[in-house]
Amino acid sequence: MNTEAEIKQPKNSWKPEGHSVVASVKNLKKSFGEQKVLDGVSLDLYESENLVILGRSGTGKSVLIKCMVGLIRPDEGEVTILEYDVNTLTPDKLNEMRQLVGFSFQSSALYDSMTVRDNLAFPLKRNLKMYDRKEQDELIVTALQDVGLENTIGKMPAELSGGMKKRIGIARTLILKPKIMLYDEPTAGLDPITSTEINELILKVREKYKTSSIIITHDISCARHTSDRVIALVGGHNKPEKTFQELEHTDDPDLAPFFKY
């Protein structure tokens, strides 16, 4: 396992020139009762980019990505994912779009009553209508190898550590070969060593699967090691995006507290 210092660092000068936009959010607004959570958020995600959305707990990070995949309907604004206009999609078209987007939940969202194998087989049967066990096992073993856990195939979720559950959750998402990955607090609740392993895995997934990714986090180490660009959510708004290295030396009073480590 690599140490934290050995993780491949994103380039300071990463720029979107030459990369097409694969997801776009424009002036997104969402309130729950009197609480205004998102108040005009806009962003673009580019091909092959790891975009980190940084913010404190309760700033609307998870609400944002749930709006992006149609789990929550915004009050105002536009969301386009891989040329799909998310807010206008029929249920069938929404499911079609979601098959192209991998969602790694903060809780891993594994089915406790299923083995690891059956957890990974579930999306193959539900989404691809793949019922041949040999075909399933070929894809399941490959996905588990990609996250370094092929020996867990017969285990139950209760037998796995928190970090292992995160990896299995990512494997279950990768088995459908998504074009976009959404990671919701991928290192939350993990010890520093396991967090470093998850950061490495995020970079490995991008390299092997050529994914574009949005990484929701309040973990400054995760942001530092996985991001090409960083957008901070403050007060329902997004601050102008920059590289981590540019933000690291900011004197913006809303952002500076994140970088006092």
Would you kindly provide a written description of the structure presented here, covering whatever features stand out?
The protein has 261 residues and is of the alpha/beta class. The protein folds into 2 domains: 21-100 and 179-261, 3-Layer(aba) Sandwich (Rossmann fold); 110-177, no CATH class. It is 33% helix and 23% strand. The chain is built from 8 helices and 10 strands. The protein has a 6-stranded mixed sheet with strand order 6-7-8-3-9-10, sandwiched between helices. The two termini are 24 Å apart.
Descriptive tags:
261 residues, Rossmann fold, 6-stranded mixed beta sheet, 4-stranded antiparallel beta sheet, 8 helices, 10 strands, disordered N terminus
Short recap of the structure:
Helices cover 33% and strands 23% of the residues. It is α/β, with parallel strands linked by helices. It has 2 domains: 21-100 and 179-261, Rossmann fold (3-Layer(aba) Sandwich), CATH 3.40.50; 110-177, no CATH class.
